[in-house]
Every structure is written in structure tokens, then in C-alpha cells.
Predict the structure.
Amino acid sequence: MRKLVLVAALGAAALTFGIGSVASQQAAEVKTLRGVSPTVDVPAPDTPHQNVSGRFDRAYRQQPPLIPHQIDRYQIDLKANQCLGCHDWSVAAKNGAPTLSMTHYLDRDGHQTDTVAGTRWFCTQCHVPQVDAKELVENTFKPSQTK
Ligand code: HEC
Ligand code: HEC
């Protein structure tokens, strides 16, 4: 009886290791877009702290322009929006910053407002800091108006 239990236990162990090695082989074949194993941590670029000089062209006409400056110190929450401290129409000239365009002062019914529309409150929902990042996979995208 004891022998039988031992044989059964060995059998179970062999099966477990067998399955385990198949699983680890499969895991080794899985590659991320960066071409590394999913178990290797590749830190994402620290975009809010980056300051890439110059201005990137828009890739298409309707694109929200990329932010050409750091944004890590500018808080946006339910009550505060520090971006408006420079970009709102009422203060932009004083700060030498580009004014929000009219589309930012239209409410959802198309009425013009004097204060920024609620739909445009969370700036970073649409605008991201420009980053000089390599593409993860080859990309053949061409802006719509390249000559
Ligand atoms: C201290 C003032 C200041 C604050 C605060 C500020 N900006 Fe700016 N921003 C500027 C200035 C000045 C420029 C123009 C820089 C240039 O032309 O190189 C600019 C440029 C931009 C542009 C590019 C506009 C275009 O026409 O290409 C965007 C988008 C932008 N900022 C978004 C933001 C967002 C979003 C925040 C908040 C997270 C913010 N800014 C906070 C001063 C500021
Ligand atoms: C829903 C998306 C969206 C949100 C939210 C948004 N923007 Fe924009 N923004 C755009 C688009 C799209 C453009 C370019 C077309 C236009 O002007 O409407 C733009 C243009 C701009 C410009 C350039 C204006 C010009 O005339 O060149 C600035 C500066 C800017 N946004 C700042 C901000 C700031 C600051 C906030 C937050 C208070 C903000 N935006 C919120 C989409 C957005």
C-alpha cells in the first residue's frame, strides 16, 4: 500500500513538473512590443518631467497641440486648474502664453462662455507633453498634409 502511494506521488510530481516546464516555455515565447519578456520591467518615460526643446508639428489638423513645457507642478483637480493661470484668455497675454482657442469656451450646447467649458477642464485628457520617444514598433504613419 505504501509503495503504491509513493508511486502515485512520484507520478503526480512528474506530471506537475512536466506541465510546469511547458508553461514556462510558452511564457518565454511571449514578447512585448518592446521585444522583451513580459517579466522584465521597462520603466515608462517620465513624461511630466520631460522638457523637449522646440515645437513638434501637429500630425493632423485636429490634433490637440502637444505641450512644449514641463507640467509636473501644475495641479488639475475638481477645484483647481493651474494651467488656466497662464492660458485662460483673461491672463494669457500677461503671461506670454498662447490663449485657449474659442473651442475651449463652448459649452456642450454650443453656447459661448466666458470661463473655460467643463468639457475642457481636464487639459491633460487631450494635451500631453511632447516626448522624444522611440516608436515601440515600426510605424508607417504619415501626417495627412506632408508634401
Ligand atoms: C507659467 C505659465 C504656464 C502654465 C502654468 C502652463 N503653460 Fe502651457 N504654455 C506656456 C507658454 C509660455 C507656452 C508657449 C511655449 C512656446 O511657445 O514654446 C505654452 C504652450 C502650451 C501649449 C502649446 C500650444 C500650441 O499652440 O502649440 C499647450 C498645449 C499647453 N501649453 C498646455 C498647458 C497645460 C495643459 C498646462 C497645465 C498642465 C499648461 N500649459 C500650463 C505657459 C504655461
Ligand atoms: C477635449 C479635448 C481638449 C481638452 C480637454 C483641452 N483641449 Fe486644448 N485643444 C484641443 C484641440 C483639439 C486643440 C486644437 C484645435 C482647437 O484650437 O480647438 C486645442 C488647442 C489648445 C491650445 C492652442 C490654441 C491655439 O489657438 O493655438 C492651447 C494653448 C490649449 N488647447 C490649452 C488647453 C488647456 C490649458 C486646457 C485645459 C484648461 C485644454 N487645452 C483642454 C483639445 C482639448
The chain has two domains: 1-40, 43-132.
